[in-house]
Design a protein that fits this description.
By secondary structure, this protein is an alpha/beta fold. The protein is built from 16 helices and 12 strands. The protein is globular.
Length: about 350
């Protein structure tokens, strides 16, 4: 029997937990152990949590490494999958490496822009496979390692979470966005509201924006934390979902790019070489600027539910047929010869 371990965030509703569950289901003949890296951090104060995310130091990082090392002590494994290793120190990863025939790292985030970690950069050479979803960072990996260890994948969705939850007749003619506040995103939502487009919003960092717009009847704030089934319900309840990309780094697609159409909601996203490769113009709304986005959404709402339903159905069919779901993405990774050689 194959023995494996998953080290990552196991908080219910997180994409890391979704990946852990699908890895276990894809390999029923394997014996998996899970080690949570989120719980130890959450037991510390907000100050230490902030130090962990900003500098990868402090009591939270200490506790994560202690828990991981204790969980791996005395183990002999065929494969260890580490999801987002930003808090794991070089000594910890080296000890994990000594316990396993194959060591895999996966991150849906940037590694050399936001989320940059000196710990992770010092451990790159210890991994057999480094999976990234950020095509713009592939060359950054190659600058730091000379072995053929990089594997590029796309973001994905969980087919058992991200699916249409609401009948088309019950969807609202509004726009939904879930994500962190950024200046560009605030400008986007402001333009939509100024053009009479109803907006529903959830996420962190929106306090000033909410304060400014809370009395507007077109605006509704759903809260700071919406995940898992609640997230899919929120996406499904609106006709259009915004797949806004971060401007802190040159992001070309995100989890929302696939989660929104998977929920049967029309994806509205900016046009770039990745989004236009994933969808045709009859499968999503592509915009040049925020005024253009407002015009397109207004036209789509005026055209009626039948037109919106047609775009949404084609978008959902596209992400399904192109296998942008976690089961297929993870199966492809596990099937890579650098990993499958342990079986």
């Amino acid at each position: 029997m194959m023995r494996a371990a998953y080290i990552g965030i196991l908080t219910p509703g997180s994409t890391s937990r979704m990946r852990a569950e699908w890895l276990r289901r894809l390999t029923p003949e394997w014996k998996w152990e899970w080690i949570d890296t989120d719980g130890p951090l959450l037991t510390t104060s907000r100050m230490w949590q902030s130090f962990a995310y900003r500098f990868q130091i402090g009591k939270g990082v200490d506790r994560i490494n202690d828990v991981v090392e204790a969980g791996m002590a005395g183990k002999s494994l065929d494969l260890v999958w580490i999801d987002k290793a930003i808090f794991l120190r070089p000594g910890t990863v080296a000890r994990i490496r000594s316990t396993s025939s194959r060591l895999v790292h996966f991150t849906p985030d940037t590694a050399f822009h936001a989320n940059r970690s000196r710990n992770f950069e010092k451990t790159l050479r210890l991994f057999d496979v480094l999976v990234t979803t950020k095509s713009f960072e592939v060359n950054e990996y190659r600058k730091r390692i000379d072995r053929d260890t990089i594997l590029l994948a796309t973001q994905g969705f969980d087919p058992e979470v991200h699916y249409p939850r609401i009948a088309d007749a019950d969807r609202r003619k509004d726009v939904v966005f879930v994500g962190l506040a950024e200046p560009d995103r605030q400008r986007c939502l402001s333009v939509l509201l100024q053009n009479g487009i109803p907006v529903r919003l959830a996420g962190l960092g929106w306090d000033s924006f909410v304060s400014r717009w809370k009395r507007n009847r077109l605006f509704h704030f759903e809260g700071e934390f919406v995940s898992g089934d609640d997230y899919a319900e929120l996406l499904s309840s609106s006709w259009i979902g915004l797949g806004l990309l971060s401007k802190r780094f040159p992001e070309l697609h995100t989890t929302r790019t696939f989660e929104i159409p998977a929920c049967g909601t029309v994806l509205a996203t900016e046009s770039n070489r990745e989004t236009t490769a994933f969808f045709n113009h009859d499968e999503a709304l592509f915009f040049r600027d925020f005024e253009d986005l407002a015009r397109q959404i207004g036209d789509a709402f005026s055209a009626g539910n039948v037109s919106l339903a047609s775009i949404a159905a084609r978008g959902r069919e596209r992400v399904t047929n192109d296998h942008r779901d976690y089961p297929q993405i993870l199966a492809n990774i596990l099937g890579d010869s650098r990993i499958s050689g342990v079986a």
